[in-house]
Amino acid sequence: MLLVFLLFGLTLVMGIPIVFVLASTGITLFLLGDNDLIIFPQRLIAGTNSFPLMAIPLFILAGELMNIGGITNRIFDFAKALVGHIRGGLGHANVVASMVFAGMSGAAVADTAGLGTVEIKAMKDQKYDPEFAAAVTVASSTIGPIIPPSINFILYGSLASVSTGALFLGGIIPGILMGLSMMILVYVLAVRRNYPREERASSQLLWITFKRAFFPLLTPAIILGGIFLGIATPTEASVMAVLYALILGTVVYKQIKWKDFYEIFLRTSIITGSILLIIGVASPFGFMLAKMQIPQLMAQAFFGLTDNPLIIWIMLLALLLLLGCFMDATAIMIVLVPILLPTLNAFQIDLVQFGVVMSLALAIGLITPPVGLCLFLGSQIAEVPLDRVIRATIPFFIPLVGVLILITFIPQIVTFIPRLFLS
What is the pTM of this model? Predict the structure, then answer.
């Protein structure tokens, strides 16, 4: 059995796609356990047969519609008018735009790919260092999985049997703290490097850009309002987001043409297919882990090391940050959440708090080499060598890890709003 898990780790380090690692390991465990292999495809299909998971492709589709539908320019223009007059203004606008877009897409990669093109070009035109422009873009994109809606929250809620609505509410304050702390860092760096700032926008310009961005700004209110008022579940709210984005892109702004739908649906299908395939092959893998009582053994191992919750949290954070450097967040959640649940329950760790902590730690992994997908995207968009983007991104770990530590050891930051609205 130990050999199987050593093989699992080795294949990951070798860079073999996680879907093949999970599938091969799962089949091996089935064979070693004398199980009928017919159970494997049954578990695979059952793993994706979940009502909450339906929200994932719909939020991805909503994000794609907004990227093509002229939403990003309007958001960035409003953010620039709002905070552009502060030293390093376009950097601040970059962060604010990411906070707004996070309330629409729910994914860091969508933020980097969508807003990044607009933001990096604007910053380079204003003589900002291109690697700094890329660094701000990729770092601020980590807000995407934290401010609701969040694809990671939907997945975690499904795996841990936790209210997705509670997770959405729990991400609001941490997401705002991430944005504010990064803006402080941008200001400090801008003063040191004498970056420019925009002229203070007149009240008229601010009003004009607000009007242009008004309907996109309503998206988070529509999604969260539908959930808070009990009109829709998170899954049903994702349908509302798609319909709203479709109306904005085709009827209101008229940016989406018939020819664009092929690309929109193709990209949505590719991203959705990759996520659901990982979820599917991880299901029989998780089934075998549960049958072999690996989660319970892990919980006992934690208890054997320490009974101090502080030490447990430090160990969990170290594990998540380390794995985030090498694995996709979806795969980490699917593998780890069922394993860690007994330990979390044994130490009475709030599952909503842990879901937000886990999502933020894994979001940091998106800007951490060697598998930081957002780093690669930012490097390509800015046309800057990857090593320069990595060096420029290092300072942004300070506010991000700082917020991670805060929400870990002050759980009320996460749990206050869910308890206020859902208690």
Answer: 0.82
pLDDT: which is higher, 194 or 29 = 194
Q: Note the pLDDT tens digit of each residue in 175-220.
A: 999 999 999 999 999 999 999 888 888 999 999 999 998 988 888 8
Burial 159-176 (b: 16+ CB within 10 A, else e): bbebbbbbbbbbbbbbbe
Residue 396 is predicted with a pLDDT of: 96
pLDDT at position 238 over 60:
yes
Structural domain boundaries of the chain?
2-422
For residues 346 and 299, what is the distance between their CA atoms, to the nearest angstrom?
Answer: 8
pLDDT digits over 212-222, tens only?
989 888 888 88
**What gap in Å lies between CA 303 and CA 343, rounded to an integer?**
8
Distance CA 217, CA 104 (A): 9
> 416: closest CA among 170, 209, 178, 244?
170
Nearest Cα residue to 245 out of 62, 103, 57, 55: 62
Q: How far apart are the two ends of the chain, measured CA to CA in Å?
A: 44
